[in-house]
Amino acid sequence: MAAYEKAMQGEKVQIGRSKSVPGTIGALIASYYQTPDFIGLSPSTQRVYRNILERFRKDHGDKRVAKLEKRHIQKIMAERSDTPSSANRLLRMLHTLMVHAIDLGWRPDDPTVTVKKLRAKTTGFTTWEEEHIAAFLNYHQPGTRAHTALMLLLYTGQRRSDLVRMGPANVKDGFISIVQQKTGQPVDIPILPELQAVLDSLPKTETFLVSDRAADDGRALTPESFTNWFRDMVKDVTVERDGKRKRALPDGLSAHGLRKAVCRRMAEAGLTPHQIMSISGHKTLSEVTRYTVAASRKMLAQQAAEALGRIGREEGSSSPTVKPLG
Predict the structure, then answer these.
(1) What does the DSSP 8-state code read for residue 15?
(2) Read out DSSP for 222-285?
(3) Of the N and C termini of the chain, which has fewer Cβ atoms inside 10 Å?
(4) Do 265 and 150 lie in a common domain?
(5) For a pLDDT cut of 90, what percent of the chain falls above it?
(6) Are 98 and 157 contained in the same domain?
């Protein structure tokens, strides 16, 4: 109640400060939450950072910032060797915390600088292949929420955080226009006939995708609830084999994997990185390259060979005739 009164009077309340001992990891995390760097992050990124930091604070919040050494961080990383991507994300967050500690004068150096990242054994989210997409659409027929979700993902290429916010208000003059929540990047996506047919069949709600729980009364899905629900929809896809219903799709297919599939499709169609970026909203070429690495090398090689053949024929037609000797 005291904190509430201070907030009502305009006094900034530092979250977590009251339960943290000055100079500890817990106090440092509480202080970081008040920095412009953290406050300026998108709400979704803030949630990700908080999840990482709060788990770390639970285990190490009472320890002194000044006594944290490289060997301690290496031990923490080694304990997470089974999940290298998660360990590397924690290392990045610890680096951010140590930079903040230096700014506060709590320590003179950053012990994370020379700590090596763990080698990840994964390429990230699995990219959907065409047979996966076909199996999903064959099982989840038009008119179902699962079919609508996949069509939105497939024909917009957006993240879950933007997908759940899309609605009729985002549609104008044949485009879906939205400012991406994660990056603040505005994107304008032409609505292809396949997606337009789906949108025309939807009831008039604030967002295209709404909760089917009676208690929610047609509210928009949260990014987290959408992810969990869509994962279940993937698991539901089955086919008849040997007189039994069996799962038709492999583990690991996610909504974000469809975003990668959209980028793959565009790369295979011969679009330039900048054309792909206009739809995906990526800001750098390196990000696009990472997402389009799943483009069919066989198809791209065939396109390259055909281009070389055309060049060869054009060059041959303009070359002077060489007469044989003798």
Answers:
(1) T
(2) PHHHHHHHHHHHHHH-EEEETTEEEE-S-TTB-HHHHHHHHHHHHHHTT--HHHHHHHH---SH
(3) C
(4) yes
(5) 58
(6) no
Q: Do residue 290 and residue 189 come from a single domain?
A: yes
Tokens standing for residue 85: 């991507």
Q: Up-side HSE of residue 49: CA atoms within 13 Å toward CB?
A: 20
Counting residues of the chain whose pLDDT is more than 70, the rounded percentage is 85
294 — pLDDT class (breaks 50, 70, 90): low
Regarding whether 241 and 182 lie in a shared domain, the answer is yes
Q: 296 CB contacts (<8 Å, ≥6 apart)? A: 264, 268
User: Is the per-residue pLDDT at 123 higher than 90?
Assistant: no
* Reported pTM: 0.62
| 153 plus 235 within the same structural domain | yes
Mean pLDDT of the chain: 86
Residue 219 lies in a domain: yes
3-state secondary structure (DSSP) of residue 95: helix
Range of the domain at 63: 16-104
Number of H-type helices and E-type strands within the chain: 15, 5
User: In this predicted structure, what is the pLDDT of residue 326?
Assistant: 47
For residue 312 the two structure tokens come to 């060869």
